[in-house]
Here is the input.
Amino acid sequence: MNDYIGVSNGYLNGFSYTTHYEFYPYYCDLEINVGDYEPGTTREKFIRILEEATPIDQAKIIRGVFKKFPITSFDKNEQYIKQELYDEYQEIVTRLESFGRNRSSEFKNLIFAANGPKPEIVLIDATTNEIKIVKNEKYCLVYDRMLTETGLLWEHLVDWWRDREDLHEQERSTQRHELYKRLESSLEDNDPEKLLFYTYYRTFFEKLTERLPALIPQVYLHYDPYTQKYLKDHKRLPRQRMDFLLLLSHNRNIVIEIDGKQHYSENEQASPRLYAEMVEEDRRLKLAGYEIYRFGGYEFWNRDQAKEKIVNFFTNLFKLYSIT
Here is the structure.
């Protein structure tokens, strides 16, 4: 970390005594009292704090350093070296997070936001549940970083997107905008889903900013390698994708579905079979630890009223889970 931040006369560059105190709660979401690590220079205290932290907190501190000192904050002639260090530290952070005793060590295979043909997936190691997308990978996104106990926040997703697309030279607002547009493209012409997606980020980003959970669209929950055409329109899985997913702290997974008439009717007639499939799948998801919230497509006929309902829903959801 000395190489990345830089040291001058035993002091970390960019850290005064005051900013070092502020660093942990603001950039790392950690309640660390630097006064408990006196005496010493900022560098000495930083090293002691890092050494004594748990693997998960060590990962948070390293991520906090990247947030406080992005690559673009260094001189042009230094950025190439800093980029190499940044890439090396990403691997270290992933290993640290995998050591933690939380769900991050079990998290994998978040495939989402497909905006083209269905991905074709093979199982390359059944003992570790390792998969590989062998066709149409370019049309979907795969989040390949470990989750921490904070879940998956919007800013974490933007960090991943920035690194994936090599957008380090862009302003943060541009990085966010490009990711938003890419995610939105997976919703195609589904106006209710696009309205919910737009209203969520338009309303709550300014209120929560770095604490905002990522609303992830079109997440593959199950996967059947065969198409319905191949199976002669027989569905072996009730549904393969979630409309939206929130991964909150403490293993709280929130599924949000918008039900059009295809969820409960066939040929314009109510279908008890489709309804039964839907509620059976809901029971299975709830037993697997997911919370499911449904909107009826009819609720979106009036856009203004729909926006109000969406804002009220997420406001109450965040109150329920103490997201402020």
Remarks:
- The first strand starts at residue 7 and ends at 8.
